[in-house]
Every structure is written in structure tokens, then in C-alpha cells.
Design brief:
alpha/beta, five-stranded mixed beta sheet, globular, 20 helices, single chain, 19 strands, binds magnesium ion, about 20% strand, binds 2-acetamido-2-deoxy-6-O-phosphono-alpha-D-glucopyranose
């Protein structure tokens, strides 16, 4: 390592005095103007990680669903996964090192992680459409080059596309071609093949309105839609030509406000969906004939996909294990439906894609979705090989058809991470194959009314949780208080957890009616405020649901 060169370059990307940041649930995120040094240093770190794993590492510049003024960065590990936890710690140390300590911290990481410094390094870089992203990705490149790493800058990409590129490059192209065309072709071919068997059900059925959150998803979907135009026509809204990124639109807005985004015209019973700012979340919704809004969230996507997969799996007669992974936010009705009606095992992990992804890898076929719309389906290598073999060998027509269908499903899901575009195509294919309308899909089960609130406390770390965040072990008395409150309502459940992305505590409650869910959420918030060091104004009971909506920030 040429530490002198690092020191010299680092001055051009100097760390503001006293600023400390944490590699959070999905990397570093804060106001864009505070991130230059972090980007440079993540370029350095990516080189070390690449040398250590002898693989290509990805660096994505994005702040996802957060406001346009924010930005962020995260590293992508060799198989398209999120950075390993021990390296998250290295990332935090490196980002927070004062200028004069930077060389020492770098050497330290190299030693701790047993990095062979003579190894070559290769880093791929992607960025979203934020005004600050281009300059920040240049800072990443400066970091990569000063440590002698090679790089390829993909420029504008959705986050899942960068994960895809990393995965392709580290499997010598076996997973796909590491180009944007390679991505479009792989997914579109699988989609067209899968939907061939769908009986044509009229134009209406095959049109989808997509709110792109004024983000990168719009650019990429516009390029891609020609590849699958025979099977599906997508109409883009909030495509970034006018509105502001994530402002009053996008998956996060729709999910947390439970209302349509601005800038989209919805006719009754029309199928619509929203991506978030970096296109790794997707949420569906529609207005019914009475003008009522219905949200079809990540839980329902998992239910649709799992029930679809069960049939061909039964047909091929091979006992491949299927499991669904959710978080504590999964609606109680979805868990009940999956376990009792679909008879599939359901597991709960902590919030954050990396936790779900990890758990899903334990199954032959692991379906994972957060209620907020992050998710995908992972097929183990063994399952993939078995299915591909069966698709070739099976004599019996029905069985072979089922195996072929599964083969296309494998190709259509982005196995590297949750991907709004890939998920959208899978969902559209399933609806077409099953001849389902969005209302019929929505009717798989009825969501329990629920409410999410936030509470400000002096130090959110005074709350610690266990059992996949469903039980609070600290502060003393809080869980007991929640248990007592939950007992007062029917079909009720509540939990609290410190946010991994904001300085607040989140409260979730569900119950048999909206009024009860609201009231339980309020009472639990009050218990948090009293027992966990609340600051500012005490939580107030909501007089109308609108008040709760106003309480929720637009971006969280
Ligand atoms: C991040 C996570 C998301 C999670 C959210 C929770 C990724 C790619 N993103 O956005 O999965 O739901 O954080 O935020 O992992 P919270 O801790 O503030 O509730
Ligand atoms: Mg995102």
C-alpha cells in the first residue's frame, strides 16, 4: 500500500472534524455534503475486500427511498450479497478515522482481515440519479485507484443491477452477462418464456402503471420495456422528468401513508405499482369500484409467489424444501395464511435485507419479503441443478412443463438481491398465468388493521430486543407493559425496536379494527416514552387517522 499517496489524496477528500457515521442497516446514509470522505474511504475499503476475497466487489452510491438531498454508499460482496458483518465494522472504523490516523487504520484492517496486499483488486461502481451521486462516485474511484485497484464504472444503475453485475463477474458469466443488456436479456427472456403458457386475457390485464419515484427505476425500465413489450405493457409515472426524487411518491411513501402517490392517474380496479428511489422495493395497489384504496404489500407478494411455486413443486414430485422468511412487520394475517392455508413453514428475522437473505439461504427454495416490498426468491445451487436436470430429462409432459416453468422462475428472480424490476416481472407472469386480477390476488387474505408510530427518546440504544425484534429485553418493565396492553385487544400484537436508520424508536401494533390498532399503538408509544427516556412532546392519541399520517415523516 502506498500510504503516502493515500494521505495526499485523502486531503482532497478530507473528513469534516468531529463527524462520526455508522455503517447502518444498508450502508452509510446522511446528507450528501457530508459524504465525500466516506466515498473515498469506501473505495479504499472495497480494494482491501476485493484482495481478501479474490473477487470483484461492488460499490453502490445511493440513499434509496430517502430525500434527494441525502446520499449513501454500500458495498456489495462477491455473490451479490450485503457486506459481511465483520467488514461493516471495518467500514465504520475507516469512515470515522481522523485524517492523521487513516494510514494506521488501513494497515490495521489489512492485518486483522489477513489481506494479501499483492493480490489484484477489481471494483465495480454504480450510482442512482441524485444530483450528488456523480461526484461522489468519482470520489469512490479516487479511493480505488490510489490503492492500485482496477475498476469498472457502470454509471447509472439500480441497486439490484449492481448486485447482478457483481454476481455475474464472480461466477465467470455463468449467472449471466455482466452488462446492462445482459441483465435485460436474461430477465426478459425468462419472462417471455414463462408467460408463453398464459392464455391471452385481453389488453387490460397486461397493462401496468408504474410509479418510478422519480428515480433510476424509470430510466432502466424505459430502456428495458422494449425487451418484453409483447408480454406486458408498462406505463411509467414519476419518471424523473418533472418531480423530485421520492417526493410524495415511491414505494415507501405509498406503504407508510397507505395512499396513492402523486402524479399517477388511477382508474378503478387498475393494477398499479411503485418502486423506491433505487428500485429495490416494489408495492402494488389499486382503487376499488367505490374509490377505496387497497395496498398489496410485500407480504402479499410473498403469499402470491409461494402459492404459485407450490404447484409445480408438487408436480415434479421432488421434495425440495420451501420456506418463507418475514420480519416482525409482516401482517399477522399473512403469517397465518402461509402457515395454515398454504402449509409452508414461516420464519421471522430481524429487519433488513441481509438478515432475511441469510435465513432464506437455508432452504432449497427460500422466499423472503419485508412488508415494505424488499424481497426475492433464492434457489439453492442443488435445487437449481435438480430442476434444470428434470426439465431436460423428464419424459412425462406435465412434469417436464412444471420443471421448465420453475427453470424460468429461477432465471427471472434476481438471486443476488431483491429487485423491483425482477419482482414486477415475476408477479406479472404469475397473474397472467393464473388469470388473476389484482383484486383476486388481494383477496388471498385480509390484512389485520395496523399502525406504525415513532417515538423520540434520548438514546434509542436503551431498548434492546430479542426473538427477531418481537420482544424487548431492555429497559426493564417495557415488555411487561406491552404484554398488558396487547391483552386488552382482540387479534392484537405489538412490538418496539430502535430504528437502524434514524434516531428514533419504532412502534408497530395490529388489532381487529383500525381504531384498536391505533389505540394500541398509541398506548405502546406512551409506554416507550415513559420507560425508555422519551424526549420532546408526549405521544398524543390520534383523533383521526389523518393525524397519524401526519405524524409519519415522508421518508423514513
Ligand atoms: C433499510 C433496509 C430495509 C429495512 C429498513 C428498516 C436494506 C437494503 N434496506 O432501508 O430492509 O426495512 O432499513 O429501517 O437492507 P429502520 O431500521 O429505520 O426501521
Ligand atoms: Mg431501496
Amino acid at each position: 500500500m502506498d500510504l503516502d499517496a493515500v494521505t495526499k489524496q485523502s486531503v482532497l477528500h478530507a473528513k469534516p472534524d468531529g463527524l462520526t457515521l455508522q455503517y447502518g442497516t444498508a450502508g452509510f446514509r446522511t446528507k450528501a455534503e457530508h459524504l465525500d470522505h466516506v466515498m473515498f474511504r469506501m473505495g479504499l475499503l472495497a480494494v482491501l475486500r476485493s484482495k481478501q476475497t479474490k473477487s470483484t466487489i461492488g460499490v453502490m452510491v445511493t440513499a434509496s427511498h430517502n430525500p434527494e438531498e441525502d446520499n449513501g454508499v454500500k458495498l456489495v460482496d462477491p455473490l451479490g450479497e450485503m457486506l459481511a458483518p465483520s467488514w461493516e465494522e471495518h467500514a465504520t472504523c475507516l469512515a470515522n478515522a481522523e485524517e492523521q490516523d487513516l494510514p494506521r487504520v488501513l494497515v490495521d484492517i489489512g492485518e486483522k482481515a489477513a489481506v494479501n496486499l499483492h493480490q489484484d483488486a477489481f471494483v465495480v461502481i454504480g450510482r442512482d440519479t441524485r444530483p450528488s451521486s456523480e461526484k461522489l462516485s468519482q470520489s469512490v474511484i479516487d479511493g480505488v485507484t490510489v490503492l492500485g485497484g482496477q475498476f469498472h464504472d457502470y454509471g447509472l444503475l439500480t441497486t439490484p443491477q449492481l448486485h447482478y453485475m457483481v454476481y455475474c463477474r464472480n461466477t465467470s458469466g455463468q449467472y449471466g452477462k455482466a452488462t446492462i443488456e445482459g441483465y435485460y436479456q436474461k430477465l426478459s427472456a425468462a419472462f417471455v418464456e414463462l408467460t408463453k403458457q398464459a392464455s391471452c386475457s385481453g389488453d387490460d390485464q397486461r397493462t401496468l402503471k408504474v410509479d418510478c419515484a422519480n428515480g433510476i427505476g424509470a430510466l432502466k425500465l424505459r430502456e428495458m420495456k422494449h425487451y418484453f413489450s409483447q408480454g406486458l405493457s408498462v406505463q411509467l409515472f414519476n419518471d424523473g422528468t418533472k418531480g423530485k426524487l421520492n417526493h410524495l411518491c415511491g414505494a415507501d411513501f405509498v406503504k407508510s401513508h397507505q395512499k396513492p402517490p402523486q402524479g399517477i392517474e388511477m382508474k378503478s380496479n387498475e393494477r398499479c405499482c411503485s418502486f423506491d428511489g433505487d428500485a429495490d422495493r416494489i408495492i402494488y395497489y389499486y382503487h376499488d369500484a367505490d374509490g377505496q384504496f387497497h395496498l398489496v404489500d410485500g407480504d402479499k407478494i410473498a403469499a402470491l409467489i409461494s402459492s404459485f411455486l407450490k404447484e409445480p413443486l408438487l408436480e415434479i414430485g421432488d421434495s425440495l424444501s420451501l420456506g418463507v422468511v418475514q420480519t416482525a412487520y409482516a401482517n399477522g394475517s399473512s403469517t397465518r395464511y402461509l402457515e395454515e392455508v398454504m402449509k409452508v413453514p414461516v420464519y421471522c428475522t430481524k429487519t433488513g435485507v441481509k438478515h432475511l437473505h441469510h435465513k432464506a439461504q437455508e432452504f432449497d427454495i427460500g422466499v423472503y419479503f419485508e412488508a415494505n416490498g424488499h424481497g426475492t426468491v433464492l434457489f439453492s445451487k442443488a435445487a437449481e441443478m435438480k430442476i434444470k436436470q428434470l426439465a431436460k430429462e423428464l419424459e412425462e409432459d406435465k412434469k417436464r412443463k412444471a420443471a421448465k416453468m420453475l427453470e424460468n422462475v429461477i432465471d427471472l428472480f434476481n438471486q443476488a438481491t431483491g429487485d423491483a424490476i425482477s419482482d414486477m416481472l415475476v408477479i406479472e407472469a404469475i397473474l397472467a398465468l393464473k388469470g388473476l386480477t389484482v383484486q383476486q390476488w388481494d383477496a388471498l387474505y385480509t390484512d389485520l388493521p395496523n399502525r406504525q408510530l415513532k417515538v423520540k427518546v434520548a438514546d434509542r440504544q436503551v431498548i434492546s430486543t430479542t426473538d427477531a425484534e418481537r420482544q424487548a429485553v431492555k429497559p426493564p418493565g417495557l415488555q411487561e407493559a406491552i404484554n398488558e396492553l396487547v391483552k386488552k385487544y382482540r387479534l392484537s400484537r405489538a412490538f418496539v425496536r430502535p430504528s437502524g436508520t434514524e434516531d428514533i424508536v419504532r412502534v408497530y401494533a395490529e388489532a381487529d379494527s383500525q381504531e384498536n390498532a391505533d389505540s394500541l399503538a398509541y398506548e405502546v408509544s406512551l409506554a416507550v416514552f415513559q420507560l425508555a427516556g422519551g424526549i420532546g412532546e408526549r405521544p398524543q392519541p390520534a383523533e383521526s387517522p389523518e393525524q397519524f399520517l401526519d405524524d409519519l415523516p415522508l421518508f423514513s
